[in-house]
Amino acid sequence: MPLQRIRIRPVQTPVTFYEQPLSERLRFFLRLECLFSQTRHCLRSESGQDSHTCLGNLLEILHIIGRVDIKTEVVKELERIIATLEPLAQTPGVNHDTLDSLLVTLGGLKSHLRNMDTPIAQELRDNEFFKLLLQRSGIPGGLCDFDLPPYRHWLQRHAETRIADLRHWYGCLDTLRLSVDLILKLIRESAIPENCIAEGGIYQQSLDSASPFQLIRVTLPEDSPYFVEISGGRHRFTVRLLQASISERALQATEDIPFQLSCCAL
C-alpha cells in the first residue's frame, strides 16, 4: 500500500491585539467598530436583558456620531484610500481583479453616503421612541422601568418582535458600519508584523513623518501575563508591557519580552 502524503497545518497560537489610533478620526472609527461588534453579539440572543444591552449600544452609537459630522469624516477617509489604491493598477504583479473589486466597493460606499439626503441614522433620531430613550440615556440608570414605562412595555414584548425592531434599527447604520469595517480592515492589513523586543518591558520607535501612519498595533500571545500600553503620536511612540493584576497597581515588566509590532499606514 503506497504511503500517503499528509499536509500538517501549523498550529496557530491564539493572540491578543492592542491598538493605538494616531488620529481623532480613527479613534471614532475604532469606538464605532467596538459598539457595532457588541450590538451584533447581543442580536443573537432572545433575552430581554440582551435586548436592553443591544439598544444601549445603539444609543451610544448615536451619541458618538452626534459629536462630529461622521458622514463627512467617513467620505473623506474613503476618498483618501481610493486615491492611495488607484495608482496600484500600474504596479506589476498586482491582482487587478481584486483591486478593481475593492475600488468598486469603496466607490459604492462613498457614493451611497454622498447621496444621502439626511444625516446618518436620522430615521432613528426622528423616532419618538428613540428620542425618549436618547434623552434619558445620558443619565446613569436613566433607563429604569419607573422612568420609562414605554420602554418597560417594549422589553416585555415577544422576543421575535424585539429582535425584528432591533435589526431594523441596526440596519439604519449599515452603510456606516460597512464603511468603518472596511476602512479599518484595509488599514490593519497595510502593515506586515515585525518581531520586536521590549527591553526591560519598554520599546520606543520614531515614525517617518512623510508616511501616513494611522494605527500602532501590538500582538502578544493570548496567555501572556502582560498587557500593553501604547502612548505617543505620529512622530514617536512608546510601548510598555505591564504585569496584569486586578487587585494591585500594574507594574512594568523588568525582563526582555518579544512581541509583534505593526505600524499601519495606508
UniProtKB/TrEMBL annotation:
GO biological process, one term: FtsZ-dependent cytokinesis
UniProt keyword annotations, A-Z: Cell cycle, Cell division, Cytoplasm, Septation
InterPro entries found in the cross-reference section: ZapD, ZapD_C, ZapD_sf
Pfam families registered for this protein in UniProt: ZapD
GO cellular component, one term: cell division site
NCBIfam families with a match to the protein in the record: PRK05287.1-4
Protein name stated in the entry: Cell division protein ZapD
Organism: hydrothermal vent metagenome
